[in-house]
Amino acid sequence: MAGVIVDVEIDCRGMFCPMPIVQLKKATKDMKPGQVLRLMATDPGSVRDIPAWAGKTGNKVLEYSDDSGVFTFLIEVS
Amino acid sequence: MSEKKKKIAIIVHSGTLDKLYPVFMLSSTGSAMDADVHLFFTFWGLDALKKGGLESAKLPGVMSLGTGMMKDRIKKVNVPSLTELLKMCRSTGNVKIYACSTTMAIMDVKKEDLIPEVDDIVGAATFLDIAMDADVQLFI
Known about the structure:
heterodimer; A: 4-stranded mixed sheet; 2 helices; B: alpha/beta; 5-stranded parallel sheet
């Protein structure tokens, strides 16, 4: 997504459930509303897990992409 | 958040590796999803709360022979150990751990035999009081 400034980036490649979610929670704790986080993961479970996490915690997935098995999410913290 | 905080209540009845993993994976994930998680350890589950219990948890029955191999695989794919998962659960502050008082009496387990992460020693009424208005109730 052009024009989105990424404030925090976390690399969860090579991690499996529950680690990407745990790391995501940890990172967003210190972020301010409106800031954007980029998360990269390779666990296929994260494709549905991360939107589920966002839905329950009130955060927003702005963008999702799959680059041959590397899943990238842009998440806006609310 | 507009939604009311969700509550998860789990009876941890089994003390084997294959059952303790789902307990701690669901708990760490649940707490990361802003839910309050309550774990009630009873019968064989109580073994997991004894000092050194998580480290010595094995696969059930005859499969226990394969515990080392399973732990190697767990390590190889970067999945945390049970002890590390417990630490993650505790760092969020919304995972509570209870030991069943009756099991402690039956198995002659004293408070000082348990890991310091145990929040309280309670009975069935305390668990039911929590579970009755929980959003997720599990028996593992």
